[in-house]
RING finger protein 121 isoform X2
Amino acid sequence: MAAVVEVEVGAGAAGERELDEVDMSDLSPEEQWRVEHARMHAKHRGHEAMHAEMVLILIATLVVAQLLLVQWKQRHPRSYNMVTLFQMWVVPLYFTVKLHWWRFLVIWILFSAVTAFVTFRATRKPLVQTTPRLVYKWFLLIYKISYATGIIGYMAVMFTLFGLNLLFKIKPEDAMDFGISLLFYGLYYGVLERDFAEMCADYMASTIGFYSESGMPTKHLSDSVCAVCGQQIFVDVSEEGIIENTYRLSCNHVFHEFCIRGWCIVGKKQTCPYCKEKVDLKRMFSNPWERPHVMYGQLLDWLRYLVAWQPVIIGLVQGINYILGLE
């Protein structure tokens, strides 16, 4: 250890040569980390001006990119959402294959196969009557699984930070890897399913005819029909239909409770499917145990920016630094 400390305090080219001559095989993991840390400092010594320039480029790129993304989202929300969804779906796949994360790849393939089938059903015309409920059931299932997985992963990380993993004789690095992996799985698939669900909800609602992005429905909504699934709300025993609880919004339009919850939670809609009056989510989810689902959904919407666009922005910054000769 003394030799390592002596090497760390070396300065200039002489110190860097001494660091290169250190035999890493004879050092403990902690000592190896210290040497690598010292090598990094020796390599970047005297480059303070260049580092400041790189930081300014990073900040400027983040600000400009954010402004452009906000304008794109406001002016062309459909293309923005489609491109974001595509990046959310494909970007992690690149890193998965590159880093050989085969477990993630298998889960990604299974999720993509089922989601592709559900999306195919949701975009067919004419729309089969059972399709809306199939879509919301699938994405609600993924939403709940991702929510539970994220909570378990977060708890595992916190338990590791407090040292509770030692009670079960689990190594800190293993417990932390387990928690971070579950947290990543939960958040990633939670974001992905909400984007797919929103796209399917728009397609289905437009096909049914009680909802349109322009704000003018193509059909008149009867009091006995649910605008989300297009089926009868109240049915006789001899009739074919769905028997379940109903929910009346503040605009007095009535829907199947499952449908309107799927529309708001899974489909990311906060307006009435017919008249587009804003939905009071606090009133709809009066049970305090249900409100975390709303907050979790808002968290996922924030994380989608990090997953989809952050790698692109960082890559753009790296390209600018390369063009300017900053390394």
Summary: The beta strands are 246-248, 254-256. The chain has twelve helices and two strands. The CA atoms of residues 71 and 143 lie 29 Å apart.
